[in-house]
Amino acid sequence: MLVVHKMATTSSLFFSSSSSSLFLSKPTSLFLRLPLKRFVSVSSQLRHGHAAPSASSTAASALATESTQTPTLDGAEHTEKTVEETEKIVLPTNKSSEKLLRIRHSCAHVMAMAVQKLYPDAKVTIGPWIENGFYYDFDMEPLTDRDLKRIKKEMDRIIGRNLPLIREEVSRDEAERRITTIKEPYKMEILESIKEDLITIYHIGDEWWDLCAGPHVETTGKINKKAVELESVAGAYWRGDEKRPMLQRIYGTAWENEEQLKAYLHFKEEAKRRDHRRLGQDLDLFSIQDEAGGGLVFWHPKGSIVRHTVEDFWKKTHLEHGYDLLYTPHVAKAELWKISGHLDFYRENMYDQMSIEDELYQLRPMNCPYHILVYQRKRQSYRDFPIKVAELGTVYRYELSGSLHGLFRVRGFTQDDAHIFCLEDQIKDEIRGVLDLTEEILLKFGFDRYEVNLSTRPEKSVGGDDIWEKATSALRDALDDKGWSYQIDEGGGAFYGPKIDLKIEDALGRKWQCSTIQEKKKRPIMIHRAVLGSLERFFGVLIEHYAGDFPLWLSPIQARILPVTDTQLEYCNEVTRKLKNNGIRAEVCHSERLPKLIRNAEKQKIPLMAVVGAKEVDSQTVTVRSRFGGELGTMNIDDFISRIKSATDNRTSL
């Protein structure tokens, strides 16, 4: 995230004695797109961030796959999926196809009608279309998978009857009378929240109706029942309030034809295979312990190694680009958050205050005020600018337990925040520098295609027109200078300044929020940016992007040494020591037959296996197989070490 802040206006949120100011900056996102490879994919744009795991949709594609088998050591077989870019199916979205949106909305109504036919005591609430389908919430007894099959059969019957969907407008009094007659308390609550005098109702034939503004298909027969599937059922509090009743939410997916449904299901299966929560457990990378509390991440040794590698690369790169590194406290006096504006604008995401020696303190939700305090510790000369500081700072934000989701939405996470203090005539060059740095870092992780948005002044904002115009022009000029194409997101900026959002796309075509660049101007100017965003979320993205199959430089274990028998164990330990002494992450596994050792290494996605038998001991060599490059043959230890170090330094595979 890059934000440019103006450092001294009367509308500032954070004031100092020198009348400079810090503006509240919400970490936004940086996203990239990758080339598709070694996976079955349907591109679906899922936007994830700590603010909300919501999704934005664009055209998606399903790719046919073939399975190829590569021989492994001692006859073991390693199967990997590759992509043939044939039979590409472009999936429409709610935004690109009004027909699809109508189908999905009507499916929600058809499902509700089916549920109430099968379960007359069920009370309906709301049923919107969503990114890949629809859902409806019911107040009823818990449902099972068997119930979903019954409901789908009833839906098919309703669709087959080709019943008309009829729009009707009635007065508020008439709507209230009808709701009272059918005894639907949730509909009554919904009616009370509608401000219009005329109430819109949609009927399915003359058998069922709901409060609804539309749109819908003309008849149920316009829905292809073979392109509809009920996916799951989950609990959901009414109005999202944990003090209100727990409802049964049925999720479904709907498409225009069977081919689109099949493509979506392919994507769904691949997404399931790559789910970072499952892989995190299978590969022993991280966990979230119930005893400690939800949304609090425990990094296991292997996950910690990956994080350490990412952090080392991040720090080295920032130092090379002229940043100074900071470490700042996890708590501060509550007064600081009041001055910074967080208590006014962000209170619902902050934890309760704690009393320490008659003063109130609070866990930090953001790093910005700390960096301002460091900047303000002394008077700065214009010759000192630009001043660039960066920190991997852990922040804490309150999230409802029901909204927590693996590493993607947590309560404590580490943000890669940085702030650049510069003069007005330095803005363009500094923003361009941030764009270059962002590209450099993300390319190293395999993300090389970008969607860029320039977000402009929202309806509610601070600062004058001239300030906003200059800030927006600075961002636009930097993008033009970089040569990146971008779209204008009118009114999508923060209340304190315009911003650049870069979106990265993973191997399944999903878009993830990582980096943003935002601007707010004053003398001097402060640019606020984050490249990776949350390390926890970025790690989750990496796991799913690589399906846990990390490249050599990132892999927690780079090489596993495998003795044919325990007779070679002493030599294997010697080889492992040499590898570790050269900074290579290596380990020995033994006490099993070699084929099982190889299979275990494959399951754990170890990039390199070095097999040692009697011949290798005699010749002081190892026989190497690369997970990505196949059989590499026999080589001496020094050559093995040299090739690993070269591949690691160049971010390539062996």
TrEMBL record:
InterPro entries assigned to the protein according to its UniProt record, in alphabetical order: aa-tRNA-synt_IIb (IPR002314), aa-tRNA-synth_II (IPR006195), aa-tRNA-synth_II/BPL/LPL (IPR045864), Anticodon-bd (IPR004154), Anticodon-bd_dom_sf (IPR036621), Thr-tRNA-ligase_IIa (IPR002320), Thr/Ala-tRNA-synth_IIc_edit (IPR018163), ThrRS_anticodon (IPR047246)
Claim: Magnesium is one of the keywords in the record: no
Record field: compositional bias (Low complexity): 52-70
Substrates-to-products reaction catalysed: tRNA(Thr) + L-threonine + ATP = L-threonyl-tRNA(Thr) + AMP + diphosphate + H(+)
GO CC annotation terms, alphabetical: chloroplast stroma
CDD domains: ThrRS_anticodon, ThrRS_core
Keywords associated with the record: Aminoacyl-tRNA synthetase, ATP-binding, Ligase, Metal-binding, Nucleotide-binding, Protein biosynthesis, Zinc
EC number: 6.1.1.3
Protein name: threonine--tRNA ligase
Taxonomic lineage from the root: Eukaryota, Viridiplantae, Streptophyta, Embryophyta, Tracheophyta
